[in-house]
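dumping this here so i dont lose it
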């Protein structure tokens, strides 16, 4: 059984920052899972990195691993990999598409950074077909770029460029590639089928690089010959939560936020947006929010609430309240609560 751990877009910058901790976590995971290959499909480093600062820490971290690290340069770290450095016997960097790494039952191709378009990429991929069909080895391609079949938005790439090495899925088909292990797409885990029986995989970044990568992070951890498999990991990520306040519900904001945070893992940072109407003065409520935010390191609050007067002084609301007078007190309160909830829903 040959296990492969596939990730990308770690963007190492500083020793002991969140990206560094995520990388160490992945090395530990690879050790625990007894993988044969650890694949990084571009952007191990960030362009803002001071590689000379990280180098002394990387050497001991990577020197004693028992699996091969197979890496291609991405658009952010091509300059790092242009320099001549040595990180250990197990670190293999693929610099040319037509010079794959050969193993007993598997062959790794890599497509390093190039500023070229879809048609040129397609033509270059066709040139490796003869090499990929000469025997029965499983062929794997590492690729760092944009799959044009997917309808991406700018947020899908974090701070990355869009229209970077854009290519259609069909360019990878009928070349005898079992897996295209890709990078550059940050948001989440994505798998596409390749004809006749292959897979194109984006693992998503293993850490939230920006606030655009929302939710628990994952990697692609799979057995050679089997489909890709999403594996969730305990690394830093952002979690968006919306809290809507209806003064009729009598929510105690501190207790509600503490309840939310109890259900969130310690590695997450909560981006909490509070909307709705409040009975207290807006200035006092904002002060209370700031005090709560100060208490919790893993909490960031965007306060979009308004004082209830913004609603009660509205002409439509006044007419509604007049209509309520014919109802019993309890029923009047229930209808008013439902009315305010419907307004809050319409404002989302």
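and the seq i came up w/
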């Amino acid at each position: 059984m040959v296990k492969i751990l596939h990730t990308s877009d770690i963007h190492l910058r500083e020793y002991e920052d969140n990206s560094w901790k995520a990388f160490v976590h992945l090395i530990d995971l690879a050790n625990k899972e007894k993988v044969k290959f650890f694949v990084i499909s571009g952007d191990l480093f960030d362009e803002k990195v001071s590689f000379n600062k990280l180098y002394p820490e990387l050497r001991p971290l990577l020197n004693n691993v028992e699996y091969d690290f197979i890496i291609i340069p991405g658009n952010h770290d091509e300059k790092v990999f242009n320099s001549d450095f040595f990180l250990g016997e197990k670190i293999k960097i693929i610099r040319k598409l037509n010079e794959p790494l050969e193993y007993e039952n598997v062959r790794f191709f890599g497509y390093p950074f190039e500023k070229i378009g879809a048609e040129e990429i397609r033509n270059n991929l066709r040139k490796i077909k003869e090499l990929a069909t000469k025997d029965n080895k499983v062929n794997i391609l590492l690729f760092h770029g944009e799959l044009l079949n997917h309808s991406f938005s700018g947020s899908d790439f974090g701070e990355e460029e869009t229209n970077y090495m854009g290519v259609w899925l069909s360019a990878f088909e009928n070349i005898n590639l079992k897996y295209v292990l890709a990078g550059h797409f940050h948001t989440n885990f994505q798998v596409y089928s390749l004809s006749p029986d292959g897979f194109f995989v984006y693992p998503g970044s293993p850490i939230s690089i920006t606030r655009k990568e929302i939710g628990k992070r994952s990697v692609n951890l799979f057995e050679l010959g089997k489909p890709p498999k999403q594996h969730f990991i305990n690394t830093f990520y952002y979690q968006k939560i919306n809290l809507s306040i209806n003064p009729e519900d009598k929510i105690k904001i501190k207790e509600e936020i503490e309840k939310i945070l109890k259900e969130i893992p310690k590695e997450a940072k909560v981006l909490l947006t509070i909307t709705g109407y409040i009975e207290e003065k807006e200035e006092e409520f904002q002060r209370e929010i700031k005090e709560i935010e100060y208490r919790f390191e893993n909490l960031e609050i965007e306060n979009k609430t308004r004082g209830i007067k913004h609603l009660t002084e509205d002409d439509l609301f006044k007419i509604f309240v007049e209509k309520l007078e014919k109802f019993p007190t309890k029923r009047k309160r229930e209808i008013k609560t439902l009315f305010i909830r419907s307004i809050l829903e319409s404002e989302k």
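The longest strand covers residues 268-278.
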